[in-house]
Amino acid sequence: MQKDQLFTRRRMLLAGAAALGTAGTAGIVLAAGGEETAGTAVAPVPGPQARQALKPSAFRLQPFTGYGPPRTAPRKLKVRRKPILEISGRGRRMMLTFDDGPNPAYTPHILDTLAKYDVRAMFFVCGECVADNRELLARMADEGHVVGNHTWTHPLLTTLRRKEIRSEMERTSDIIEDTYGERPQWFRAPYGAWNRAAFQLGAEMGMEPMAWTVDTTDWMEPGTGTIIDQVESGAAPGVVVLSHDAGGDRSQTVRALREWLPYLIDSGYHLTVPPRRV
User: Do residues 108 and 136 lie in contact, with contact meaning Cβ atoms separated by under 8 Å?
Assistant: First the structure.
């Protein structure tokens, strides 16, 4: 609970930090099955790599220590100046993302609801939380969800030196690979506060920057009804939804998801994840 309380205090103090790193236009990523393109953002706000689920046996073969085969260097990407805010593609496609976990009190309930409706989502995880909850990343791998890098300790990157940012990102990518089975291909800056070093280092590590277009505001614990309204009123083709499975009391998030997810499905939306790059 101390860790969750710390996250909550950070968010209340830094709620406006998202404006530091993004404004204006940004990229669009095509949902699974297409090519990435550039385009105009739905909204001037900051904000998952599609993959087949690893077989359970494949996960169990992944080492928790350094005794496995050497890691391969990620393919370097073009350095972006703004994060990706939305997805494109045919039909009514949306993307669900969850930040700050995994957390044993809330993440399993979110995974249960996603499984009930056969939906894949994106989880941007913090390395220190992964270290305490590896089995939840194993479940994400088994169930076909995409895992992205959200740093090790959830710091405000704009206050760190470049080598500190690199450490936060590299340590998290390493533990994701050891636990999930693959290195992450997506990165999200804590608080949506991006800077040039984050874009450059992410590209060096083979990660695209992913932001969001609809903030559920669940980090403020505004009430289950408010979270539901935020998603349902903001639903539109291409939208990336931001929610949280850690960083505070996320019981409202869990309850709200059980309401707005079937609503989106009944409204004809297809919940998807980006394609895996090879």
Answer: yes
Q: CB atoms < 10 A from the CB of 130, how many?
A: 23
pLDDT tens sequence for the chain (278 residues): 444 544 444 544 444 444 444 333 356 665 554 433 333 332 223 222 233 333 333 332 333 333 444 566 677 899 999 999 999 877 899 999 999 999 999 999 999 999 999 999 999 999 999 999 999 999 999 999 999 999 999 999 999 999 999 999 999 999 999 999 999 999 999 999 999 999 999 999 999 999 999 999 999 999 999 999 999 999 999 999 999 999 999 999 999 999 999 999 999 999 999 888 76
DSSP 75-136: PP-PPPSS-EEEEE-SSSEEEEEEES---TTTHHHHHHHHHHTT---EEEE-HHHHHH-HHH
CA distance 268 to 163: 45
Do the Cβ atoms of 215 and 84 come closer than 8 Å?
A: no
The answer for 84, left when phi > 0, alpha when psi is -120 to 50, beta otherwise, is beta
Identify the burial level of 119 via C-beta atoms within 10 angstroms of its C-beta, where 0-12 means exposed, 13-18 middle and 19 or more buried: buried
Q: Active site residue: 150, 215, 244, 245, which one?
A: 244
The alpha carbon of residue 2 and the mean position of all alpha carbons in its chain are separated, in whole angstroms, by 23
Give the number of other Cβ atoms within 10 Å of residue 262's Cβ: 13
For residue 190, give the amino acid letter: P
Rg (CA), the chain: 17
Task: Reply yes or no on whether 270 is catalytic.
Answer: no
Catalytic residue list contains 99 = yes
> What predicted TM-score, i.e. pTM, was given to this entire model?
0.80
Which candidate in 99, 215, 218, 245 is catalytic?
A: 99
Report residue 196: phi and psi, to 5°: -60, -40
